[in-house]
Amino acid sequence: MFESFVHPALAFGATLAAVPLIIHLLNRQRHKPMHWAAMRFVLAAYRKTRRRVQFENLLLLLLRMAAVALLALAVARPFAAGDSPFAALTEDRRDVVLVIDGSASTGYREDVETVFERIVERASEIVSRLDGARGDRVWLIWAGDRPRLLSWTSPDKALTVLSNMTRPLDEGLDLAAALGAVKDIVEQDAAGTGQSALEVRLFTDMQRRVFEPDDVVDAAVGGHEPAAPILIEQLDALAAFGTKVLVEDLGPAPEVPGNLGIAAVGPSQPIIGPGVPVEIVVTVANYGSTPRAAVRVALEVDGERQPSQRIDIAARATQEAVFTLQLDSPGAHALTARLEGDRLAADDQRAHVVFVPAPIRILVVNGASDPDIEDDETGYLMAVLEPPDDSHLPGLGGLSPFDPREITPSVLADPELDLTDYEVIVIANVSNVSDAVILRLEERVDAGATLIVTAGDHFGRTIAGKLFRADGTGLLPAEVTRPTPVAAAGDDYYRVASFEEDHPILSFFSEDLFRPLLTEVPIYRFMQTRPLPIARVIARLDDEAQSPLLIERTYGGGRVIFWTTTIDRAWTRLPESPNTLIPFVHELIRYAGRRRVPSRNVGPGTPVTIEVDDVFPRSPVLVSADGEQRPIDGAADEFRKNRWRLPTIPGRDTERAGLYRVELEGALPEPFAVQLDPGEGDLARLAPAAAAALHPAFVPLARGETERGGDDDQPRRGEIWRWLALGALLALTGESLWAGWLGHKRRIVA
């Protein structure tokens, strides 16, 4: 009879139809028969009319019960299926879910309109056929990397929303997430029956990577994996409710549309400091099936255009354009790479922000100074960090990214020494320091600095006992037990047996060509240690115990690194090997002084936090990629000395790809980049037949098909609440008229 109800709980209100009957029965119990001689004439007359009166009262009772029952059922809004006896009374009402592919790839312009404009036009055509007065409902989902439910229930509202959709999102399409939102709607519709009659349509450009996600990072490289398991799970869930997804292909005609796009832009190597030449690599992808020649690539650096280059790119391949430039000032610098415009404008431009670190400020505490560099504990270290002006260290061109200061342990105890001025503190072969100094070191490392400790002849249990605590609250990452020399320094030595090749300090030596520079350096003496469980052993020696040589641990916001030997000639030949010493010290200090700052390169819709140095950020204003300006509300937070964190810019303000900047009163702008997924430029399309083969719930429609084809298998249901409401109204009207007529008639008789 009734297949289901929109509001199943309200259907129980039909039981209220028994209320008039209950009242009638209760009223009968209140009257007790009483014999009265004069009533025998009345009873005689009553017996003559009893049948008629009972019929009249019964009809009145039934009308009252019908009015209550029909009204309750109308409010519950029942559905009748095609085989129901009430099927003829159902309304031809449609419940439609429209999924709009809003990915950046739909910005492809074919002829005079873009694919996205075609999608919106088709969706508007469907919605315009719906009748809100008839009870038609529509859910409008704008799908990008997350689904956005823009409109529901009202076709008129959906049309208004569609009229304001003028350009796609700068995002990819997460089809599984979009179908997950559809599944939630279908579950609500199928409540109580397990089946849904919703009509689900997906308007898309049939981008292959959406239906068959590719695990390869470079989208231009061929090969696709099967559809993602989570996508199949969502389709299985929809199929369980009897729901099919009508897929309308509104993309460009070619199977592989031609398109060029910038896949990446950035430095080839980490930038070590201002004034150092750096290579900026712009990677251009040819997503089409034909090669492209003499493609012009342009690069802007902080708004200043560099000489452009021309490159040739094979079909379905990538090619790099390399720009060599020099960034003279520390801080954030904005890069913008551009191609000549084509049919898909979204990937013809890509912004990237690089950070040029200021020289790392290093405090070197020399525990065994000597006029002779060969006997000085930090002589070789300082020579690497602060080379003579006429030196030309490999790869630096005579420039140093470091700003070291050497002191003695007594100066370290001076309360006038401000440790917050230094990002890296090196304690080299120091015998002892005061408890006050230990406390200051702990506070500075906890605030974000790095402490590097090296051993030596003066380094012993005294200072080790102050730096280490078994519960992990001390600075040292390991307990120092005893020094371990080789049996005969002239004939035997230890070497590095193993190291973490992916660690930034030692990754330089991971290549076979450079590995011997580290593994063949003789080490004659080191400190035996027992690392804490929280410590990380980066390198080990080849002794029987595989003793740690380089140990690291985090400490609050900073880190501590322990080199269990020295950087002078007393315990190791490392200082006599400049090809080892220079890259080791540089990578060690760069890693130790690396500032952990929030990324300035994010995806669309990602919140952004900006940190600034030295100048208090006054009146910050966000300038979007479109040039719109908006003040940033909130107060800046000084989380370290002379370093402030601006209020987080919410994701709703970073939804468009491009170069943004935060303008500050009395300071240089702080740029950040919102970057499009490079895979959006790969417009290779999936054939409708291939989409149908992915899952039975997919029902592709042929290009140009405009009717509701393909959904004949979906269950048909219709509501009959209007007829029920009309029946309730007629029952109430009949009850009123009948009760009035009976009252009038019985007054006349009386």
Written account of the structure:
- This protein has four domains: 4-88 and 721-749, no CATH class; 93-255 and 686-715, Rossmann fold; 260-357 and 598-679, Immunoglobulins (Immunoglobulin-like, Sandwich), CATH 2.60.40; 360-593, Rossmann fold (3-Layer(aba) Sandwich).
- The chain is elongated, with a radius of gyration of 40 Å.
- Strands 19-18-20-21-27-26-25-23 form an eight-stranded mixed sheet, with helices on both faces. Strands 7-6-3-8-9-36 form a six-stranded mixed sheet, sandwiched between helices.
- It is α+β, with helices and mostly antiparallel strands and 750 residues long.
- A hairpin with a 5-residue loop joins strand 30 and strand 31 (629-631).
- The longest helix is centred in the first third of the chain and has 37 residues, at 40-76.
- The protein contains 15 helices and 37 strands.
- Residues 214-226, 390-398 and 708-716 have low confidence and may be disordered.
List the helices and strands and how they pair.
Elements: E1 4-5, H1 18-30, H2 40-76, E2 78-81, E3 95-101, E4 109-110, E5 113-114, H3 115-128, E6 137-143, E7 147-151, H4 155-163, H5 175-189, E8 199-204, H6 208-211, H7 229-240, E9 245-249, E10 260-267, E11 277-286, E12 292-301, E13 304-305, E14 309-313, E15 317-326, E16 331-339, E17 349-356, E18 360-366, H8 379-385, E19 402-407, H9 409-412, E20 424-428, H10 435-446, E21 450-454, H11 461-467, E22 478-485, E23 496-499, H12 515-519, E24 525-531, E25 536-541, E26 548-555, E27 558-563, H13 578-593, E28 601-602, E29 611-613, E30 618-623, E31 629-631, E32 637-640, E33 643-645, E34 658-665, E35 670-674, H14 688-694, E36 698-701, E37 717-719, H15 721-749
Parallel strand pairs: 3-6, 3-8, 8-9, 9-36, 18-19, 18-20, 20-21, 21-27, 28-35
Antiparallel strand pairs: 1-2, 2-37, 4-5, 6-7, 10-11, 11-15, 12-13, 12-14, 12-16, 16-17, 22-24, 23-25, 25-26, 26-27, 29-33, 30-31, 30-34, 32-33, 34-35
